[in-house]
UniProtKB/TrEMBL annotation, chains A, B:
Keywords: DNA-binding
Keyword Ribonucleoprotein on entry: no
Gene3D superfamilies noted in UniProt: Tetracycline Repressor, domain 2 (1.10.357.10)
Organism the protein comes from: Kribbella hippodromi
Family annotation (PANTHER family): ACREF/ENVCD OPERON REPRESSOR-RELATED (PTHR43479), ACREF_ENVCD OPERON REPRESSOR-RELATED (PTHR43479:SF11)
Lineage, top ranks: Bacteria, Bacillati, Actinomycetota, Actinomycetes, Propionibacteriales
Alphabetical list of SUPFAM superfamilies matching this protein: Homeodomain-like
Residue intervals of the HTH tetR-type domain: 24-84
Protein name: TetR/AcrR family transcriptional regulator
InterPro entries in alphabetical order: Homeodomain-like_sf, HTH-type_Tx_Regulator, HTH_TetR
DNA-binding region: 47-66
Length: 213, 213
DNA sequence: GACTTTGTTTGACAGTTGTCAAGAAAACGC
DNA sequence: GCGTTTTCTTGACAACTGTCAAACAAAGTC
């Protein structure tokens, strides 16, 4: 259908040097508002007008700052990454023992599961959409890599603290942990009380199996 | 938005007793055609007219056999389950050694990954959609349970053949394997040559870790 | 203060969507 | 054969979509 170009989303819009970050700030505001709507409704049910309605802007402004819908969504995805891929860094860096690392990681993980559910729902939605919409794939791939690295940092640190070595490679470790997390995200709405605890228990069970004794 | 009812999809349509399975056969034909389109385009981009166009029927027929769009999709999902949840049963039942089970399972798994990619893409898409569309959740939950049972049968048999016992519960085992499989499905289009082999290797690596030595 | 640039609003467009209803066609019972 | 029921076609509807452009307001420049 849409054979259109629009692969890169860099702003070739006229902008004086002093106002360039003002534009960027507007974009961020738009993106944040869009992410809120997207997280609630999902990709398929979110229209540009809905995004504009749930924001302080009108639907025309969206097209002033973004070329088209995909450009906006793509920007949102990339913006979203900056908020999540470094989520466990502090825990990983400061933990002095395997137990401290494990509990700290689990605390942050269940916390984001509970407090940022819509964002995680959106992420899994967008990753599914990227299988059908080619323009979404590069951004999704990038974030997937970021998350994989994040998990890998955790696992190598965990191995270090337990005096062992990772027993699986980075993509495998990420896929396993992500499988558990996605299961939790999907099931969270139906069982908000039990799911976070179950997730923590399962991660605790699995983590030791990912390093060699 | 849609507060509508339409939870059950049973046909309360007038139908003479002799023609009731004729209706069912038409529904199946519609569903099969719809699944083909859905698998190619994904949930968000598939319209009832597109489904009708890619079939031998007109768009009016769709509404004659299905109350609305969700009713059709829901039926498709349930129909889809019958084709996949028993996929590994023969391997599980006939395998006489852990190796035979493992290689047989991996063969079938990589085969369906390659040959039925659209169907798997659709499944992960629909599961994501179910987080936003309540009417989809019961069907998705049912299939998830079916798949979990399938993996559990595999794992218990594997433990049996290796003289060990499962080291994780059924939901955990399913989440882990499913995480690896979804990763493969997402990455398959970009790297059709390397992904199946990688998936096989990773499953081979992980399976032994899911039972106690 | 006049003028240009930048930002925003509003309204319109062409296309698509799900849904439905009226009527044609086919199948069926007798 | 005819009347009835079931199946299908066709065309229409209202609502919604992404996109755009022209009018408008604001800010900045000289």
């Amino acid at each position: 259908m849409t054979v259109a170009s629009a692969t890169a989303a860099e702003p070739d819009r006229p902008a004086r040097v002093s106002g360039i970050d003002k534009i960027e700030r507007r974009r961020v505001a738009l993106a944040e508002s869009a992410l809120k709507t997207l997280g609630e409704l999902g990709y398929a049910r979110t229209s540009l007008r809905e995004i504009a309605n749930n924001s302080e802007f009108t639907h025309g402004v969206v097209h002033y700052y973004f070329r088209d819908k995909i450009d906006l969504i793509s920007y949102c995805v990339r913006y979203y990454k900056t908020k999540c891929a470094r989520r466990y860094d502090e825990v990983v860096e400061t933990a002095a023992s395997a137990d401290e690392l494990s509990t700290g990681f689990l605390a942050k993980m269940t916390q984001t599961l509970v407090e940022e559910t819509p964002m995680h729902k959106l992420w899994y939605d967008l990753r599914a959409q990227s299988m059908f919409e080619d323009q979404l794939r590069p951004d999704v791939e990038m974030i997937d890599k970021l998350l994989e690295d994040m998990i890998w940092r955790l696992l190598t640190r965990y191995a270090e603290l337990t005096g062992s070595t990772p027993a699986v490679d980075a993509p495998t470790a990420y896929a396993l942990v992500d499988g558990l997390f996605e299961q939790a995200v999907v099931g969270y709405s139906a069982n908000p009380d039990t799911v976070p605890g179950q997730l923590a228990g399962r991660i605790t069970q699995v983590l030791p199996k990912l390093v060699t004794a």
